[in-house]
Amino acid sequence: MKMQWMNFRRFLEAVKKINSLNKRQVSINCKTVVCSSDVELAKKNGLPIVALESTIITHGMPYPDNLKTAIQVENVVRKKGAVPATIGILNGQIHVGLNNEQLQTLAKSDSIKTIKCSRRDISTVVAQKLNGGTTVSATMLIANLLDLPIMATGGIGGVHRGAEQTFDISTDLVELGHTPVAVVCSGVKSILDIEKTLEYLETQGVPVVKIGKTDYFPAFYCTETFQRTKVLHTVSNSQEAAKILKAQRELGLQTGLLFAVPIPEEYALDSKEMELAICNALESAKSKNISGKNVTPFLLKELNKITHGQSLRANMALIENNASVAAEIAMNLTEKCSQSSLNNASKCTLTAERNPIVIGGALMDTTLQVKESEIKVSQILSQDYTK
Ligand code: PSU
Ligand code: MN
User: Does 155 contact ligand 1 (Cβ within 6 A)?
Assistant: First the structure.
């Protein structure tokens, strides 16, 4: 009994230490992370929230289509009953939830002065009080700080063609490997090496779940890849998708989850034609020595030129659709969570803060002091207890 108590005391000390570490972390984040009143209120009331990235606004589309898309995407989320939280950096402050004026600032900003901001770039952009559009990796990271379980985008970054020479592998994939936020996307563009991208996600332990009729992995502008790449896991609707996300969170798996949703058929482009357009765009990038983070924005612009605006229209349509699906999943997730919390409060981890103190708190609860009053406390324990 004495031994057990000593272990328990050590455990309490460890919990205290973790507690103070977390508090410090949170207070640092509070200074630089600002939530809009909508998001703040939704968080307080446990309403479904969908995080949205902003590189698509700053570097993915030209003005004014970018602004139109950003506003439309938010409306789609609201219409489904969830709260949109577009994440972006303005004057070094990280905003979770942007108003229309702030969206406009990002949409109109010079894409050279505004930083395309992945995990790597956040600290510099914050310290130098710059503006930044957050990529999938940065959006996931920030969403996770606020315990937002899901985000939507157009397509994630991936392993670039020729990565065996250039080492160009998007940090989105690494983020998916260690940040527990689900990402709803239309797969990856075939400007990337799709097979290698899926291999990389497998190595990182990231579930890739196709939502739709077939098990073909979508290729952004096209409903399937040129090579008709397949995925292992499929679900047919948002409700089933939410079940997987819920299981992932209940198990405490610290990896992300990729939901792949094909572009709506009426906007889909022909995969053979796109393959050709992409090869031309890649040639053009090579001849202009475009590299690193500039590759994706350059190729997007080139493809828009080559396809006479068709690729941009497809891009806008698929993002709206992904946001809609993400909102449905978020709604289902909240429902499932409140149902299971009614059934068994201790089993529901989704509304609770996901940090070790809560687990510690739960353990404290399971010592059930109330019940212990019915048990005779041993002498050794009570002696030790007073020390
Ligand atoms: N795919 C698009 N448009 C985009 C992006 C991807 O169709 O704007 C952006 C996303 O924000 C993604 C980022 O996270 O590009 C990946 O960039 P990179 O490949 O440099 O990691
Ligand atoms: Mn890259």
Answer: yes
